[in-house]
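Q: Got a minute? One more chain.
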Amino acid sequence: MADVTYLSQIPLFEELRGEHIIVRPYREVDAVDHYAAIDESREHCRPWLPWPDYYHSIEDSRDYIARCRARWIVREDLSVGIFDVENGRFLGGSGLHPRNWDARIFEIGYWLRSSAEGHGYMSETVKLLTDYAFADLHANRVYIRCDARNTRSAAVAQRLGFVREALLRNDALANDGTVRDTLVFSLTPDDPRWPS
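A: Always. Here it is, folded:
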């Protein structure tokens, strides 16, 4: 197990390759495609995520990617892009978000551009990241949180065998200002994974 005294020295992947997708850290050249995916998906993502209206130009995506790359280097956050393995098309974003390096606890967040939904890309992404977290980062816990009304997001966790741990009632404000509930799903090293 890698020493967490010097987080920047923990070896990380250059890419994770699945049957249909490649997951990798963002590169500067991704800014145009990143912005296009957000622009396509604003209405689709707005009910669930706070950031669709933060991006007004490709420069906003460039700035986001630069900050992602900096946080990757010091291992503060491990945000990644999701790309079609056949044509390299940018499909969405995800990441392993370290919540406690000493305890090896990670959260996975994700979003897909609206035209990429329904193809299994996100299930494949979460599976790759979770396997990596347990096998290479020696995770003790990997979890997913989502708005309780976001049935598609919850379905990804359920499909992959994540254990539903909690319904946190009146846990946060939704983007429309209403109070919302949050679902919490997790896996630990002893849990069975990837049901058929």
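A: The CA atoms of residues 109 and 160 lie 14 Å apart.
Q: Perfect, thanks.
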